[in-house]
Amino acid sequence: MIVLGLSSGTSVDGIDVAAADLELDGKQVWLRPLGHREVAYSAGLRGEILAALPPAATTVEAITRIDTGIGREFASAAARANSELAGGAAELVVSHGQTVFHWVSDGRALGGLQLGQPAWIAEATGLPVVSDVRSNDIAAGGQGAPLASVLDVLLLGGRPGVSAALNIGGIANVTVVRPGEPPVAFDTGPGNALIDAAVRRATGGAESYDAGGQRALRGTVAPALLTELLAEPYYSAAPPKSTGKELFHPGYLPPADRLGPDDLVATLTELTARTVADACAAYRVTEVIASGGGVRNPALLAALRRHLAPAVLTTSDALGVPAEAKEAYLFALLGFLSWHGVAATAWAATGARHPTVAGRITPGARPLRLPPPASAPPARLLLRPAAAGARTAAGS
């Protein structure tokens, strides 16, 4: 079936949407990328989301308005993607929505809030929508993150050595796949979150990220500040673990008068690279396959290569999964498996007591007719070549 996956990460850059042709074939699942695009949030909605994120205070009214606003903009993105990427043939939409709070207490995840009312998507497309994909894992004692491990474990199984899939969004996470051992997956710490916050502070919001890594490349790493930042207790905590902007928010930054803005960005870029590399070194990783918005930052990639060596760093493009759309394809896969009754979360990695079927379903224009449940979860993900004319686009 053709599935649309939609997501917006912790950087709140916009909506990533991908169309995938998926087939469940016994112990393997096939994925053919049909195309992806990034759709910018409207300026007003993005401002509302950022204003509501921790540690800011908000109201029930604001959350309700944001929930509807995200739902409408996700609905528009899905309808457009169905037409332009899937030729109107999509059968299912999977929406992760926008995370606005991830509740962790004493190392245990107790809940999370992803906004973006799926009823708007179902209304706009006429298709059923799988949403709220983290809650079942959390209810079973898991972290509800990183869900990327669902795709990573299936894709990287059988590769030589120890492989790590790295996603660099606002928060960075890794999935480590080791021959003969259970996978390990966890958030390593800030990906782009603190870098973006420093750039926004330095520019009064005129810039929202370090474009081309230019600020980091101009700046100089401050060793004393880096040492202080690396002392954060989260980094030494054992997995399973997860985090978010509840910890790594703008208030986490040192005072603005302590360091020049470019030096601060350089130091925070080094922090992300060091914490990722330290996490991988603990498992003797031999290759790191990166994805997410952070792969567009050459300063961050250079720092990662330096600290990860001798492990080899590449991107998921080399495996046939576009690095900037990997999470959208992940959610398409996750919802597809849920549609077929497959409990596919990497529960051993999230810390859950047992595997769970992810999400809940909002009906579309027609009555729901689910297929018979699959007899067993797949063991491998195989990529078919991207469809001829598969589109990659950015737009509003």
Automatic annotation (TrEMBL):
Catalytic activity: 1,6-anhydro-N-acetyl-beta-muramate + ATP + H2O = N-acetyl-D-muramate 6-phosphate + ADP + H(+)
Keyword DNA repair part of the UniProt annotation: no
Pathway: Cell wall biogenesis; peptidoglycan recycling; Amino-sugar metabolism; 1,6-anhydro-N-acetylmuramate degradation
Keyword Transferase recorded: yes
InterPro entries recorded: Anhydro_N_Ac-Mur_kinase (IPR005338), ATPase_NBD (IPR043129)
E.C. number: 2.7.1.170
Amino acids binding ATP: 9-16
Record key words, sorted: ATP-binding, Carbohydrate metabolism, Kinase, Nucleotide-binding, Transferase
Pfam families referenced in this protein's UniProt entry, alphabetically: AnmK (PF03702)
GO molecular function terms listed in the Swiss-Prot or TrEMBL record: kinase activity
Similarity comment: Belongs to the anhydro-N-acetylmuramic acid kinase family.
UniProt function note: Catalyzes the specific phosphorylation of 1,6-anhydro-N-acetylmuramic acid (anhMurNAc) with the simultaneous cleavage of the 1,6-anhydro ring, generating MurNAc-6-P. Is required for the utilization of anhMurNAc either imported from the medium or derived from its own cell wall murein, and thus plays a role in cell wall recycling.
NCBIfam families linked to this entry: PRK09585.2-6
Name of this protein: Anhydro-N-acetylmuramic acid kinase
The gene coding this protein: anmK
